[in-house]
Amino acid sequence: MDLGSVIIAPAGVAGTFGGSLLSQRGSERAKLREMELARDHEEIRENRSLRRTCYAELNRAARQFNTALNRHLHLMRNRSAGDTDSDALEEAKNAHRDRYSELQMIAPEEILMRASVVNQALNKVYGQIKRLERGAPGPGETTETAARAQYEVWDVLRTMRTAMRHDLGVSHEEPRRAED
Fold first, then answer.
1. Which pTM does this prediction carry?
2. So what's the pLDDT on residue 5?
């Protein structure tokens, strides 16, 4: 054997070993990256599912609260509302409060802003109704002004729902700005 062969043979073996090690490490990195991407994709899907559920529940609770306010106003016009009627209104209010609290923890700022407008509008009407029931209405508060305010809540509910649908990617309609 000549000296060149003795030097070249170990270099060839080292190159083969080194190449396979580098190839293995590259493959491991690619698999790790693929797993990270899959995990990120799953997290995004879970987050969207959580928002979808929360949005649907808040939308339903807000609509039911608004309907309960409307029903209560009708009862007040025809007769005084009884304990059962007040209990139904309180249940709707509490359900909305609970869904709104959940939304505050997961919704992006745009949705939270829309939901806040709805929450304030619903609670404003609720406050008017309660003051009217106690016989201590605020200046200019009547069952008619409360009914008008309650009816106007439907518009802010629609705006909130549109923003939620847009956030979930199920609507291409742009939500109106809060100032609109």
1. 0.74
2. 74
Residue 103: CB atoms within 10 A of its CB come to: 22
Q: How many CA atoms lie within 13 A of 67 on its CB side?
A: 11
Residue with tokens 């309907």: 67
| 48 Cβ contact list (under 8 Å, min separation 6) | 168, 169
User: Going by C-beta distance under 8 Å and a sequence separation of 6 or more, which residues neighbour residue 137?
Assistant: 128, 131
The per-residue pLDDT for range 29-77, each reduced to its tens digit, is: 888 888 888 887 878 788 889 999 999 999 999 999 999 999 999 988 8
Spatial neighbors of 118 by CB under 8 A, at least 6 apart, are 62, 153, 156, 157, 160
Question: Which CA distances in Å does 144 have to 25, 82, 98, 116, 155?
Answer: 75, 20, 29, 24, 18
Cα distance between residue 62 and residue 59, in whole Å: 5
3-state secondary structure of 180: coil
pLDDT tens track for 120-163: 999 999 999 999 998 999 999 999 999 999 999 999 999 999 99
Residue 8, both tokens:
């070249």
Compute the 3-state secondary structure of the chain and give helix, strand, coil in percent, each to the nearest 5.
85, 0, 15
Token code pair at residue 53: 């559920």
Tokens of 49: 């599912």
Taking the C-alpha atoms of residue 131 and residue 3, their distance in angstroms, rounded to an integer, is 105
